[in-house]
Write a structure and sequence with these properties.
It is built from 9 helices and 10 strands. By secondary structure, the chain is α/β, with parallel strands linked by helices.
């Protein structure tokens, strides 16, 4: 499979007064189409800065970055925004849904920027199909305050998918969720990846990283390990195990 993300010698240095902070220090990383990669590391390891570079939200100080065949390192702001809107879908820890807007309308929102020529019916159809993928077509008319945390995150995933991105980027996607809901959300990611979606996820939780297929660990701005997940967790299996454990507690004298 071809490389969707190609980083070569990427660095990011922030200037704070007379001090230079090297957040990313010469990272070389290749992610191929269809992979599910978790980037791990403690606070200050550089994982969030690296994700911002991958997401075209920040520019590297040095090095080369190619996204789905496009060299993005030297693009101007407008060109970078265009690539970001067409090539990437974002899922964040906070769901970032518009409170007074239905799930369907929240999912339609990205298309207003990239598919301005679509009719109202076409926008609705695409948004409904994205909600179907995450199992929430029956909640299309609900507002965020009428949805659980897990459902809100699934709406956010549908919103990230609606423009058919080359890569889905997830930044601590289960950070605001309980254990059961986290497993359900990771099940959505696994289903998407099984269907061919390339996913890059930042997390500090080892158990969440175990749902991916490959773990990249960072420390002090560098990659210190890059290994396949040999004991991968399966979300459906983990949900069954959680249900059985809960039932056992309920039956205990």
């Amino acid at each position: 499979m071809s490389a969707v993300i190609q980083l070569t010698g990427v660095e990011k240095t922030y200037h704070s007064g007379e001090i230079d902070v090297r957040a990313v220090a010469g990272v070389t990383l290749e992610i191929r189409a269809g992979e599910f990669v978790a980037i791990l590391g403690a606070s200050g390891s550089g994982k969030s800065t690296l994700m911002n570079i991958i997401g075209c939200l920040d520019r590297p100080t040095a090095g080369h970055y190619s996204l789905d065949g496009t060299a993005v390192s030297a693009l101007n702001r407008d060109a970078l925004a265009d690539v970001r809107n067409r090539k990437l879908g974002f899922v964040f820890q906070g769901f970032n849904l518009l409170a007074r807007t239905s799930a369907l309308e929240n999912v339609e929102l990205p298309m207003l920027y990239t598919h301005a020529g679509l009719s109202r019916a076409e926008l609705r159809d695409r948004a409904l199909r994205a909600l179907e993928v995450v199992g929430l077509a029956d909640r299309a008319g609900h507002h965020p305050n009428q949805l659980s945390g897990g459902q809100q995150q699934r709406v956010a995933i549908a919103r990230a998918l609606v423009n058919n991105p080359a890569v889905l980027l997830a930044d601590e996607p289960t950070g605001n969720l309980d254990t059961r809901t986290s497993i359900e959300v990771m099940g959505v990611f696994q289903k998407l990846n099984d269907g061919g979606m390339t996913i890059v996820m930042v997390t500090h939780e080892l158990d969440i990283a175990a749902y991916s297929r490959r773990n990249v660990v960072m420390r002090d701005g560098q990659i210190i390990s890059d290994t396949p997940v040999t004991k991968r967790l399966s979300a459906p299996t983990e949900l069954i195990r959680l249900q059985e454990a809960h039932a056992a507690v309920q039956l205990a004298p």
